[in-house]
Design a protein that fits this description.
The protein is about 70% helix and about 0% strand. The radius of gyration is 27 Å and the shape is elongated. It has helices at about 1-20, 50-70, 75-90, 105-115, 120-145, 170-185, 190-210, 225-240, 245-285, and strands spanning about 155-160, 165. The model is unreliable at about 1-25 (pLDDT under 50). It contains 9 helices and 2 strands. Strands 1-2 form a two-stranded antiparallel sheet.
Amino acid sequence: MERRNKMGFIILAVTLVSAGVTWGQSAPEPVVLPPTLDNFYPPKAPAPVYLINMIQLATPFSGVASDLMQGDMENVGKTYEKFRTQYVAVSKMVPEWTSSFPMGPVDELGAALGGKDPSKVMAAMDKVGQVCNGCHIPAMAAAQQRYHWGTYDNIAATDPLSKQTVPFSVLMQMIDGSLSGIETDVEQGQIENARATALGLKARFGELKEVCAACHDSERKYYVDESVMGKIDQLQAALAANPVDPKAIGGLVQGIGFESCHKCHLVHNPAAYSKYRFSTAKAAH
């Protein structure tokens, strides 16, 4: 039972390290992804080759811990050798990152497995996990944003008010202008202007919902779903009141902003800005 508990802790420790939880370690600074990495992702490659190789590296590493937890000492050495072979192969794929794949911790793990001391194996696996962690924290999010997220550059929308085709970013600016305009008009006592703007806001949100379908082929359960559209209906109803309550209008405008705009931006803006930074840096060189 004690041995199984120790092996269970190995799994926990490795999981925490791979998730970025390493006690006493400060987070590395974000890195600039090397251009060589482009060779292993579309459009230069037919598939996300680097990602596939990293998965093929992670599988036997976790497999070592699994074999240990099961007490399968007959196969753990074979699993380790598979991990070590793939580790060396991946280290050579991107020359700029080769130095980030030290062999010391990997060889130390092999030696610990030979000694069959669970505490030493746990310590060795933790060191290998920290090697992985040292790259994943600064580079993984940037790679995911560059290679796995789409771009808004080619998405166009039809402004339902002017009937003109506009870039997606312009539609978003129009929606932002409508939200701000409603609150400003109410503060200025221009209620009819606010009511007209609210009608346009609803129409533009309807277009936004259609534009989202350009990338998302499943029903949106947030951002542009019926609960958000319902808030716009509540805003129109509040503007139809006599007298109009500026505090109620402000609360509804803020609610739409937080429930739709803000939450969507938290998901999409980091990737969009990352792609923009990368494209401008690439153009500068």
